[in-house]
Amino acid sequence: MSLSERKRSYERAVVSRLKNLGHGELELLGNLSFGSASSSHLSYPFYRLILGNPYEKGKRNVLISAGAHGNEPAGVYAALQFAERHAERYLDAFNFFVYPCLNPSGFEFDEIKNRDAININRDFKSSPRSAEAQFVAQSLEQSGAEYAFTVDMHEDNLNQPVKGFTRRSNIRTFYLYETCADGGRRLGEKIVNEIKKHTPVCRRRKIYTASSKNGVIRYRSGKSRGNKGTLEGYLALKYTRLALTIETPTCWQIRKRVSTHLRAFMAALDIAKERQW
Ligand SMILES: [Zn+2]
Questions:
Q1: Which of 123, 130, 191, 194 is least enclosed, having the fewest CB within 10 Å?
Q2: Secondary structure string (H, E, C) spanning the chain
């Protein structure tokens, strides 16, 4: 694929915004490199942003990630906007570990997979093939942090049918996945109640192959999602007792998708702030 097929610039849309933040600690986790000498070579710096002080006692850690699927860009913009405009007012209660763009090459070329045709959100297994998943796994291990909850931002891209389904089956409303064993800790239903006031939420009993209720697909353990290699499953197995994945449909205007992600995430924070865990 030639460079002319780039749909967005990772440098402009993500890197420059991260560098202009003026607060937090921006960590370069590594460099991604694609192509060989014979084809055009691509390289991308891969970042994590830490907001707040993870070593301060009494504050809880929260992890946000986005853009694992490159053709689902709204979460990337939402994570950046959160860091720029909203994080500060939550810093008395939380520290944030932000992985703003998990698949920079997919983001640029508007493709679900990376340039090596690896689906990052199926690569979180005991030994990931992609450098993207390796960088995330290493950084999680090095920090050794536990997270009060984690949110991975995705979209239902209407041009990308889900395996085993036709494009017509793609969901055109908000919904989320929630992996949590402890009923008292769950946030999914409360997030949906907040989102419902502004935008339609999926009412189907089944979303693809999963049972759902009021826009929430619920798992009690990270096992099944973890076996698939999803980041949500991986986090639930190793680093958190509450892992969420939130979804907006790409048939909505980008502004609405970004604001819906932000609203869902901040609803989760507002509820978690009042709770003791
Ligand atoms: Zn996705």
A1: 194
A2: CCHHHCCCCHHHHHHHHHHCCCCCEEEEEEEEEECCCCCCCEEEEEEEEEECCCCCCCCEEEEEEECCCCCCCHHHHHHHHHHHHHHHHHCCCEEEEEECCCCHHHHHHCCCCCCCCCCHHHCCCCCCCCHHHHHHHHHHHHHCCCECEEEEEEEECCCCCCCCCCHHHCCCCEEEEEECCCHHHCCHHHHHHHHHCCCCECCCCEECCEECECCEEEECCCHHHHHHCCHHHHHHHHCECCEEEEEEECCCCHHHHHHHHHHHHHHHHHHHHCCCC
